[in-house]
Amino acid sequence: MTSTQIPKLVGEPIRRREDPRLITGLSTYVDDLKLPGMLHMSIVRSTHGHARLRNVDVSRARAREGVSLVMTGTEAKAWGEMLPTAAPLGNSATRYPLSDGVVRFVGEGIAAVVAGDRYTARDASELIDVDYEDLPVVVDALKAMEPGASLLHPDFKTNVCVTVPVGDKEATEAGFRDADVTIKQWMVNHRLIPNPMEPRGVVAHFDPGQETLTVWSSTQVPHLLKWLLSGLVRLPEHKVRVIAPEVGGGFGCKIDVYAEDILCSLASIHLGKPVKWIEERTENFMATIHGRDIHAEIELAARSDGRLLAQRMNVIADIGAYQQLLTAAIPTLTSLMFPGVYKVPALYAEVTEVYTNKTPTDAYRGAGRPEATYFIERAMDLLAHKLNMDPVEIRRRNFIEKDAFPYQTATGMAYDSGDYEPALELALEKAGYDDLRREQEELRKQGRYLGIGVSTYVEICGIGPSAMVPGGGWEGGSVRVERTGKVTVLTGTSPHGQGGETAFSQIVAEELGVPMDDVTVLHGDTSQVPFGVGTFGSRAIAIGGTAIVMSVEKVKEKAKKFAGLMLEASPDDLVYESGRIFVPGHEDKGVTIQEVANAAWGGTVLPPDTEPGLEATSYFEPSNCTFPFGAHVCVVEIDRDTGKVELKKYISVDDCGNVINPMIVEGQVHGGLAQGIGQALMEEAVYDTDGQLLTGSFMDYNLPKAEQLPSFELYRTTTPTPVNPLGAKGVGEAGTIGATPAVVNAVVDALKPFGVDHVDMMLRPEKLWRIMQGGTQ
Amino acid sequence: MIPTEFDYVAPSSLAEALQLLAERGADAKVLAGGHSLVPLMKLRLASPSVLIDVGRIAELKGISVEGQRLHIGALTTHAEVAASLEVIRNVPALAQAAHEIGDRQVRARGTIGGSLAHNDPAADLPAVMLALDAELVVRSAGGERTIRAEDFFVGMLETALRPDEILTEVRVAVAPQSAYVKYPNPASHYAITGVGVSLQGNGSVTSARIGVTGAAPLAFRATGAEAVLAGKALTADSIAQAAEASYDGRELLSDIHASAEYRANLVRVLTRRALEKITT
């Protein structure tokens, strides 16, 4: 026996190996890069919501000492292409990286200044005189749809981008005809600003000798960026390399290919020098995509016992001024999850996307599922209220049963696996639901307003089969056992805070039977790792992890061939266990993976039809998405004097299938809950009628803080997915999805004595105070 | 987040600082903790040509009790004020307000003098200064003068400080029966409304002073409530009456966080809570 016993790793709460470097300032973000001769870029952005540019006078900026280049829409148009849309729909309006004559939202780029340092670039940008001719502004999607509304893109003769029908209209109408009871409610799901801790940043370096472009970008999808950017700046793809160095969060907003990726690259190609742009926080608020702003009138038809017959939705998505990479796809992704965890026999929805003079929307944590879940979970409470039924009971009566999986929904989704009721029962038990209801009664008598909110959700992760992901839904992963037996793992995913390096190491170390410290995970550099797609849609473990597992299997098979030679045994007779290969019953004569690796890379003796080396690359194309689920219970008390909501208790039961690292899962749920609760109670992007963003800084946009949140109580049930060999479903977004309706349901529940059955988000204390004063919202 | 170019000087004595201020005058800004000024400079909302950093001037720091008054050097940080036993014992309202300012980082760097000289309409301290009848000591190269808090706060972001003057010290009357409560803006932690209360008298109130910040463009005294309390014992009834009289109908601020009507409600609620805090 030479190898040490490898402890169990998968399923263990192992501390994240990324954290020491992250919390001690030893990691390298885009802004940490300093290249010789590097120049700096600053962007002049529109201060008007909608205006024609009569003139952009750059003469003073060009004349300023230290300025290397000033670009306007003219250069951007001549040198590069328009911003890409991976999923264009309907009247697809995109734009050049700098405005070509009309600005349509505050923050849209007008000119770019490149200078020797950031200060000069910024000072020079203030020397650019923009002569605006104001056009009428429209910031409300419903108003934008009215006849005579100011048109953002007059060629379309409408602000409506597209209307997408979903489901079966006739069957749905029949369901409503047969109903004993119906409910109907317009619901607001307001606009949010993603706010990753690290704003965006780009360094582009065109090497005029090699004719290669290297771009460091704070992106979630380096491979997609490389592919798209090569076309956008007119260089062949093999001459472009993209590196995502340390990336400080994304929440979906770093999936996009942005104007600044293109502008830095164009400037570098033009000047032959590296060009850096680092987004200021103020810019991040208005120039990086926003999320949500998807509203709906939802109708439910049910029998008198609460069982659902049909669901009808009229969805209005305010997508802002332009389509970006996935803008148009998010509202349609929402529609796929409309029925939630319930058996809805018939469903019909119309999803209308509308242009307004606001920042474009795109994927933000949950991207479609928080909206869908909010609508159905709020509606189920409304139905329970109308039937005078407990909100828990109406859910129990409508759950898709455990033996109904795989379950085909009325929106065409095939839910992979699920067992919804135990998750709800666990949440209720941990919350002490019946006691809470009694306490609520008691407190009401004292003039205190306790609210109990329940939400049950199913979402869609492991995104997904390539047919549903523009740009591909598979993922790549390589495993190389180096000559000394150390292991290098390459993943096409691009972790930016999720802990992927730790989780992938756990999987590989356990599967190969090597110490975790012997495994390194590399990602984010397109010249280093095999082709990949990226990190979004809670897909990294389910798809990226599977690609790695496939490569581990290939490596183990190859290792057996070499071991067979070394042990003079047939590879078919060998077993691989804890890093050793041996003939069963002759364990003492086995060889270690380290010994095999040395032999495999030595190459002196090769098994038949076998190449030297011990590495494998795999690409996993999933057959379906995964559908994690859970149940949340939120308890609030509302201050009678001020309307302030106190979060007294938060129980989250989440089922994300098999878990690689429960500590990381809990961390993901914590962050997700904070953002989901944030939408209900704290965060809202507010525009005035001129298109000015009133919540353009952290002074006015309340990003949730630890002191504003309760101590979360987390539990899990485990229902593995059959879709991948890990049985893992994904957990990156679940908290955001379950939390918002749980909180709003709790607040509405608290306010029942005041005669309300619905309150629109965001739940500012003043709004709740007015309700308690007997006023309207 | 990139300021315009500026000069930076860090004098080691007050005299030197005052001399510099006299020379550079209107273009200069005095830098204390920097937690109001530097963000404005980063947003290019303030572009002083020179910063005179008074942070190294030892004589501007420290807390001492002088008879019935507490003297606090202008450069004393919020964290130092909040943690000072002298302040907690003698002027609890000031300790409470200092403890509620911003967040831990702001309290560690921000100073009492810097905050008062900036006079943000949503700052916590003006309410307490009015309630405590504070005197603010200011110096210029020409000499020293003392300004009462009510005369010091002139308008939104405006004080009685002249361009060549530096606020050096804050003096407040000892007031063990004092309290501050606030309703914070959840994003910025500034006061959407904050109320500071100071009472004199045993058994019955001989005099009451109530300061309100955040609600209006300028901190103000709730004189109606003060009058209600004078001569009365502090009871649930008198507190309720005072709370009712605390808002005098003046024009209040209105923004996305709180309408004027809601702020009026907060003035009443917080006046009640501040008075209740004294009784407990």
Structural overview:
The complex is a heterodimer of chains A (about 775) and B (about 280). Chain A contains 20 helices and 30 strands. With about 775 residues, chain A is of the alpha+beta class. In chain A, helix 11 (about 370-385) packs across helix 12 (about 390-400), helix 15 packs parallel to helix 16 (about 540-565) and helix 16 (about 540-565) crosses helix 17 (about 595-600). The mean pLDDT of chain A is about 95. Chain B is of the alpha+beta class and about 280 residues long. Chain B folds into 3 domains: about 5-55, 2-Layer Sandwich (Uridine Diphospho-n-acetylenolpyruvylglucosamine Reductase, domain 2), CATH 3.30.43; about 60-175, Uridine Diphospho-n-acetylenolpyruvylglucosamine Reductase, domain 3, CATH 3.30.465; about 180-280, 2-Layer Sandwich (Enolase-like, domain 1). Chain B is globular. Chains A and B meet through helix 4 of A and helix 12 of B.
Brief write-up:
The complex is a heterodimer of chains A (777) and B (280). Chain A is of the alpha+beta class and 777 residues long.
Biggest sheet overview of chain B: 5 strands, antiparallel
Distance between the termini of chain B: 45 Å
Q: Architecture of the largest domain in chain B, according to CATH?
A: 2-Layer Sandwich
- Overall tally of structural domains of chain B: 3
